Structure formats: C-alpha cells, structure tokens
Amino acid sequence: MDNNSENEYLKNRIIELEEEVKSHDSEKASNQDESIFRKILEHSTNAFYSHTTDQKLTYFSSQIFDILGYSASEVMIKWTDLISDSPMNDEGFRKTILAIEKGEVQDPYELELIHKLGRKVYVEVHEAPVVENGKTVAIVGALTDITERKIAGKKLIESEEKFRLLFEKSREPILIIDDYNFVECNNATLEMLDYSTSDELFNIHPSKLSPNYQPDGKLSFEKAQEMMDIAYSKGYHRFEWIHMNKYGIEIYMDVALTKIPYKGKNMLFTVWRNISKQKEYEKRIIESEKQYSTLFEQAADGILVGISGGEIVNANESILKLTGYKKKELIGKNISIFFTEEELDKKPLRYDLVNKGDMVIYERIITRKDGKLIPVEMNTKILHDGRIQALVRDLTKRNEAKLAIKKSEKKYRLLFENSQDGIFITDNKGIVDCNTQAIRIFGCNNKEELITRSSADFSPEIQPDGTRSAEKVKEYLISAHNGEKKIFEWLHSRLDGSTFYAEISLIPFVIDNKQYLQSIVRDITERKEIEQRIFDTIIETEEKERQRLASDIHDELGPLLASLKMYIESLNVTNDEKKQGYLKNKLQSLIKESVKNVREVSRALSPYLLNKYGLKSAIKSFIKNFGKRIKIEFETNLEDERFPINIETVYYRIIKELFNNTIKHAEAKNIIIRLNYIEKDLILIYEDDGKGINKDDLNTLEKKGIGLFNITNRIMSINGKYQFILENKKGFGFKLIKEIEKIKNK
Question: Which superfamily is assigned to 607-739 in CATH?
Fold first, then answer.
C-alpha cells in the first residue's frame, strides 16, 4: 500500500472511529476497536497524534522519531519549537482552527518542521475533529513524511525552469518535434528563419521549411521522415540539411535529433547549427583546388611536387616540355634525375624545408632527357599539406636578354661618350654622370671636376631675358621631374668664366623606381651668330624696302605732282571754258591716281586699319581689296580683342605673304583663313586648294625661298610655334600658334 492509499484509509478510519465512539457504549466494543486502531498505528509509516481544542498535545506515536529524530515524549514537550516560521505553515493552522470551530474534516495541508539535526522536514497533515454532543472535544491527526517528494518536486521545477531558460536563451536554434511536426521553438529559431512568432511554425512538418529536394536528390519530405525515424529508433541522429527562411533563402544546417521524454511522451529535441559559411568555405576550397589544378597544368613555368627526400609525386605539362620526359617516367623518381653529378657536387639539393611557407630560391643547371643543359631558377617551398613544390623557370631567354642588355648598355655608353652634345645624368642630389663632350664644352679637365659642382656654377647670375639663373633652373627642374620634357635656350658659363649659348633638353626617366634627368647640352653659339646675321639681313632687306618705297614715291608720285602743278598753272592763265573743263577733268584724274598711290605706299609701310582696329578689321579689309582675284573664306572668333602690335603685325604680314605665294605659285581657286583665340593661344590656320608642295621642296624653300624664309624668321622674332601641313591631299596648309595675353582695347 503506498502512502497516498494509506493516508486515505487512515482518514476514513478516523472518521469511522469517531462515529463508533458516539454510537457504542459497550466497553467491549470500545476495547475491540482500540485494539484494532493500535495495530494499525504500530504498522503504519505515518506518525499519529491528538491534541485538545486548545492545541495541547495528548498523544504522539513512536513513528515521529523516524520523521523528526525525536521520541514521542520529546516531541510533545518541544512541539512548538519544531514548527518553522515558514508562511506555508499559516495555512495549516487556519485549517486546524476551522476543524475545531466547525467540527468538520478539512483538506490535508503541508507543514514545514525542523529535524533534530537542523534540516527542514516537510509533512502532509490529515486531521479530523472528535465531536461529542455537537461540540469538538479533540483533534486527531496523522503526519506523512513528504520531504523526498517535496525536494524531488522542487528539483523537478528547478530543472524545468533551467531547461526553459536554456531553451529560450540559447543562441543555437532549438525546436521540439512531436509526431513528426514542430511543436515548440526558441527565439534563435525565429531569428534565423526571419519569423515573428512561434505560432507560425506550430505543427509544421520540417519539409515545409525546406526546398523540395535535398542536395542528394531525395525529396525533402521523404528524407525528413527517414531522419526522424532513425532518431526515434536509435535515440540520436545527426546529419546535414538545407532549410529555408521565410523569404526562401536557403540555409545549410547541421541538425542533431535527440529522443527525450517530454510532457509524458517521447519527442525529438532538435538543435540546428548554421553551417552556411562553412559550406561556402568548403565550396571555395573545392573551387580553389580546381583553380590550382588548372593553373598547375596550364602554368607557363614548370612545376614539380614532391615529398620529403625528393621523391616526385606530380609534374605539370610545362616541366614535361622543358625536360623532355613523360609524366610516368618522373612519378616516383627522385628530383636528382635532372642533375648531373658535377652539378650536384657544386650545389647539393636541399630537403631541409620544415615549416609551411619556408622558401628557397636558387639557380641551377638541369639536364634534359636528351642531354641538353638548361639554366633554370628553382623556387622551392612547402605546401599546406606538407608536400614540397618546386617552381622551375627556364632562364635561357632571360640570360639572352641580359646579354642583349649588356650589349645595349655598351652601345649606349659608346653613343653617350661619343656624342657631339654634352650629356649629363642627374638625380635629386645633383650630377651623377656626364660624357666627354660635356667636360670639353664646359672647359673642365676631368669628370670629377664637373660632377662635383652644381649647375649654378656653370651659369651667369642673370640670363639675357633678365631672369635669375637659379630661379629659372629650379622652375625647369620641377617641370621636368613632374614628367614634362623641356627644351629651352640657356646662357652657360665655362669654368674659366667665358659664356656660350646652349640649347638644353631635359628628359625625365626612371630606373629602379628612382627618377633621373638626362640633360643634353648643345652649343648653339654658331647658330646664334647665324641668326644674328639673318636678323641683320632682315634689317638690310627692310631698309631696301624703304628705299624702294621712297623710289616709288619719287617715281610715281613725283611726276603726278609735277603734272598737277603744270595743269593748275595752265588753268590759271586761260579763260577758255572748254579748255578749263578739260584741265579740271585732268586734275581730278591725277588727284585720284595720286591718292591711290599714296594709299598703296601707306599700306605697305604700316596698315592703318591694323594699327587702329586690330587684326580682324585689317584682314577683312585686305580680303575686300584682293578677294576679287580668288575666293577667300575667313573664319574667326575675334571681336574687338587687341594684342601687342608686334604680334598683330607678324600675323598680318604672314597672311599677306601666304596669300602672295598662293596667287603666284599654287594655281588655287579657294583660300580658307581661320584666326581664333583659344585658352591664351592665338591660332592661325591657312589653307588653299592649289597644287601643294612636297616635303623636299618645302625644305629647299625654307632655306632659299625669300617668302618662306621671311615667314619663319618673323615667327622666330615672336617665339611662336608653326607647322606646315603636308598631307596626302591636294593643297597647302599652314598653322601658327602663339601663347599671348590680350591687352586692353585701344
């Protein structure tokens, strides 16, 4: 009989005894019942007691010793001290009072007592009132020790609370499966699947959160059933699975199913672990292995893979081509197969690479299968799996290139030293090298005497244009170091203090990531003297032109003016109207002719419109006067802009010179003149559709033809840039550019 059944029996028996006490007067009957009651008490595991209505104990059975460690007599004396002050005891006291007051049996209650050893003891109390003549005269009761049950229940509650806390707070998704459906899940599951509440996952089969098929090709529903059956059968099953979140995004899972008793049933405790990143890494590793395999086979350099001791386990196609062996002839052989004994004696092979990432690079001579010797570079290192990889690169072409470079350097040095121009190589610290001509040009005795000095030592303080040499040099060097090639004229001084004009070319270049400048110095003293003679010739030519104009005035205007004087005198001495009319007509004709000649001479000397109104007006006037001879198209973006008069005069004279050449030699029908000012550049483009001129004839005319000679010298006088356009088409073209600032309108 268990405790609950026994307690129920005792409760009922107490009530029966109470009734028997009321209804039997016979002492015999009373003794018989008491005997039966005593036997029950002696064999019960419960402790029995009685107390008066004022709660004075009158009896306690001996079983109390097993419950509290005290004898019955001790308990009756210390009873109030053995009751703890726990609030749970208040309910029991209240029920005892109700039983006394109402004379009715109350529901059992729990009481917290204190054991002799000081620990807490929990008992379940069953009490019944003893009523005589309608009045309660005593209380009888039984105590059942429920300490173990109470502790077990408390532990069960704590265990359930811990389980629930772990379930909810776990960062891994946890679900409970009952009858092949999800019935519970934690917040981590909702977060992973992007659902809001667990209700959305309630009673859902795992396949509903999965794609139709798993990676092995099986239907998700069928495979899910199979996995759950294994877990139910074996108690545990772990496998990989693809689930989907709310938006259909696939997630790789590591799934663990554990059979547990839960809520009176066998359910599956399910733990998910997201392994999508791991799968991605695995995928990348596979792809990397494929790429490595592809690169291995397609690499231009030969690759050997071996193990410790030099045994070859793999070789790519390039190494086979390089050595002349077939792969089956190399696998299992030692790498020493590629080396002669003499080569191995010079440089023994190294197998002492012990750490991943260790690398040895060295040059060797390997022997092909046919006996040919090949220089190679071997780059040997340990792979992640412990194997040794040797990258073998054929150095034949590199060595040939080195030889070619040496030859090229020799040629460069030959040209460098034998150049008729002085050549300097400088870095940011100064001169690092120079050729023999540079030493000669600057009047030095040796290279050291030149390169130990700065460029300022070989320039006067002030250049002919008034600028300071040091400032100008700094400006040019900055431009050159910024990658701009510079060509300019410079007045240099020799070591003895004498000066000479030079044309300087600054050319930047880079060697081994370090920037250098090559400075080419060409002595142009003789050229400057020729230019001076040319300018003298121009002045002489202009003087002759003035004399010619004076002669024209004398020869053309002198007779006209003399005739005018004669006709005026004749007009004054005659009264004949007819004769006077004739003289007047003659005078008017002579005056017009004189004015015309004066204008032509004036235009030749200094165009009035050019001085007064600028290039646009002067050119339009010129076209108006001479455009009847040939069709002229004039395009310009100039309005009333003005430039220095010397610039305007040069442009105007060049246009006239080009026009005269076209009329005299080109047999053209059309001329196009474009004059535009764009970003501080005054640009003139002149074209005709005549018979044109080839390059050889142009070179001859530039040297000997007075027209083109005048054009090029006028351009030099303003430091302009020009180009003759000689394309494979009919006609002639010319382009002139001068960087110039506009000036205020006059």
Answer: Histidine kinase-like ATPase, C-terminal domain (3.30.565.10)
Phi, psi of 338 (to 5 degrees): -90, 0
Q: Classify residue 332 by its DSSP letter.
A: T
For 161-184, the pLDDT digits (tens) are 666 777 777 788 988 999 999 988
Looking at residue 684, its pLDDT comes to: 94
Q: What is the CATH code for 302-394?
A: 3.30.450.20
State the Cα–Cα distance between residues 288 and 284, nearest whole angstrom: 6
Exposure letters 56-78 (e unless 16+ CB within 10 A, then b): eeeebbebbbebbbbebebbbee
What is the CATH number that goes with domain 402-523? Answer: 3.30.450.20
Q: What's the rounded Cα separation, in Å, for the pair 666 and 660?
A: 10
Residue 429 and residue 514: Cα distance in Å, rounded?
12
| CA 652/CA 642 separation, integer angstroms | 13
Euclidean distance between CA atoms 528 and 735, whole angstroms: 25
Four-way CATH pick for 3-149: 3.30.110.10, 3.30.559.30, 3.30.70.260, 3.30.450.20: 3.30.450.20
Mean of pLDDT values over 414-441: 87
Entry pTM = 0.34
Where do the domains of the chain lie?
3-149, 170-280, 302-394, 402-523, 530-600, 607-739
If we measure between CA atoms, which residue out of 534, 525, 527, 505 comes closest to residue 517? 505
Backbone angles phi, psi at 46, to 5 degrees: -90, 160
Collapsing DSSP states into helix, strand and coil, what is residue 143?
A: strand
From the number of C-beta atoms within 10 Å of its C-beta (0-12, 13-18, 19+), residue 83 rates as: middle
pLDDT at position 153 is: 67
Q: Is residue 43 exposed (0-12), middle (13-18) or buried (19+ Cβ within 10 Å)?
A: exposed
Alpha helices in 88-171 (DSSP H): 88-102, 147-169
